[in-house]
Amino acid sequence: MNQLLGGRYQFIRVLKSNAVGQTYLAEDTQGEQPLPCIVKRLQIASRNPRTQRFVSVLLKKKAETLSNFTCSQVPKILDFFEEAAGFYIIEEYIEGRPLSDLFAQGRPWDEGSVIQLLHDILNIVATVHSWGVIHRCIEPAHLIRRESDQQWVLIGFGIFHEISTQVMRSQTPPSSPLLGEASTYRPTEQTQGQLQFSSDIYAVGMIGIQAITGLSSLDLMKLRDSSTATNGSKSPQILWRDQGNLSDELAEILDRMVCPAVHQRYQLVSDVLNDLQRLRRQETAPGASASLGDEAAERPRTSIASMNWMRPLGLGIIAILGVAALMYSQIPQRWLAQRSLQRATNYQQSGATDKALAQYEQAITLQPSGQAFYDRGMLHQSMGNTQAALEDLSQAIQLSPDNSNFHYQRGNIRFGLGDSEGAIADYTEAIQKDPNMSNAYVNRGSVRADLGDDQGAIADYTAALQVDPNQSAAYLNRCLSRSNIGEHQSAIADCSQAIRLQPNSVLAYQNRGLVRRRIGDIRGAIEDFNIAIRLDPLDADPYYNRGLARYELGDRMGAIADYTEAIQRNPDHVFAYYDRAGIYAADNNLAAALDDFQQAAKLCLDAGRTRCYEDAQYQIRQLQARETSNPLPEQDTSSLDQD
């Protein structure tokens, strides 16, 4: 991007992006030579200005605190500031290779190497904990072996994302991925918002298990078994020992590091380091391991008389155990699987998603069924694990190909992933198996409309209404499709019917307003947008659409005010920035126009929308040329939203 972030940092490329922020590779242009650095942009994701100010102050305090601490194996915080509705942290760039690259090879490490790895990581964690800071995000991708000295460097502090995520959680419905996010390296108490210093110890322990077993993080997740418990704990234990070749002593250390019961886990990093050091001394001590003969010589002898006395008792015990095993083996697998499914449902309802997933895994192992795969898939979907959800729904369909709902839900997942053809195929299968599934008609119509087939979409919405005349979504969607083919009066009638069925539908008023604006009824459109704003004052889109209508009436200041309101409610509303910039440019307010176009370009780039980014960059060049009285050739920017 042309504009320097913070007046000095030149964007190079996006490294990572998620719901709460982005990470960029950039260059610090101040100095004799540009130096690479890491830029983290955190979205202050609250619509409440007071909350935004609070979060901003909190982030600054945390950044200032961390910048005062120094450790050669933790990146330095070079700068931090707030700009364009985002909080930015500039970190030292570490040249090297992440531990995740080594783990990707899938080869188990020898015990000595694992002990050394644990020792190295824990020494860094001990320093971080001495600052009174919990890292929160220790995982292989956040451990970089620095190229210059081959030392491990711990990056990716989660403390800043945690603040933004907490704000998002307060505004997010329970089905949001933020509420159910699970990770191989996160203990149960962390996913439930009860973070402790020992949560970092758990993460390091899981890294040690991954190293000694050579398993992937996904395979480690599968080893969780919520049916096991330690001293009454109901948290899932990791059953991993048979996957690696290691001593019992190291296995006990790792087990205690990842113990699901927090009070039984190591509480201090120093305690883990002491036990690892003790294990090292045992391995290097001469004669540390006794031979089989020595062990047998030290074992107490049992007299022949006592052996004869124990034999019938032993046979009796064996017989009893045999009968019990026979009785247990005859318990129907189906009953055991159903019990696991019921437990999974209970855990899911209580928010214990890790335990629910473990129970689904157990049910599927006992007796694979379409319902078990479907239920687990829907849980994955609610947690944001879309690919896992798609795989589970596909397994469910293989086992129960005639279940219309399985096809319908997989169609929803495929549509969300952008697989329009796959979604249409699934919705069609669902309709063939259940011709009365009105939702499948509506959603297939939505996919067709998305592909530009408004005639096909209208046919689907009409079919849905034949099945269910009160299907408000069908009226709502048919409204826009009819308008797209020029049937504006029919479109208004459909939107009005949707409003009658759902009087508080913001989207219905918005859609009718859009149609009214298309036919030149600008004041009628503004009335609809006004109602939508009253119904939901926090929704940015009605403000943006009212701004477009006001601009068409010649109310330029009113349009700017509405675009500004939209941006305050959604700082990532690229079109509000773009259209406000257009008014500023027309009014010869070039500085404000440049700022808005640059923000629009940045948002387009963050979202991977190349055409949008190119259009915004063209406008920036036009403005810069105007400043030098050298205008560029005109370019059609009417397709800003077509990427």
Topology (SSEs and partners):
Blueprint: E1 9-18, E2 21-28, E3 35-43, H1 49-67, E4 77-83, E5 86-92, E6 96-98, H2 99-103, H3 111-130, E7 143-146, E8 152-154, H4 159-171, H5 177-180, H6 188-191, H7 197-213, H8 217-222, E9 224-225, E10 237-238, H9 248-257, H10 269-284, H11 292-298, H12 304-329, H13 333-350, H14 353-366, H15 370-382, H16 386-399, H17 404-416, H18 420-433, H19 438-450, H20 454-467, H21 472-484, H22 488-501, H23 506-518, H24 522-535, H25 540-552, H26 556-569, H27 574-586, H28 590-606, H29 610-627
Antiparallel strand pairs: 1-2, 2-3, 3-5, 4-5, 6-7, 7-8, 9-10
CATH class of the domain at 97-135 and 181-282 reads Mainly Alpha
CATH homologous superfamily classification of the domain at 97-135 and 181-282 = Transferase(Phosphotransferase) domain 1
Overall shape: it is flat
How many angstroms separate the termini? 18 Å
CATH T-level topology of the domain at 97-135 and 181-282: Transferase(Phosphotransferase), domain 1
Residue-averaged pLDDT, rounded? 81
Helix count, DSSP H or I runs of 4 or more residues: 29
Q: Please bin the fraction of helical residues.
A: 55-70%
CATH architecture of the domain at 97-135 and 181-282: Orthogonal Bundle
Largest sheet: 5 strands, antiparallel
Total number of beta strands: 10
Rg calc: 31 Å
Instruction: Please give the order of strands in the largest beta sheet.
Output: 1-2-3-5-4
| Structural category | alpha+beta
- Runs in which pLDDT lies below 50 for 5 or more consecutive residues are 167-182, 225-234, 287-331, 632-639
Strand content: 5-15%
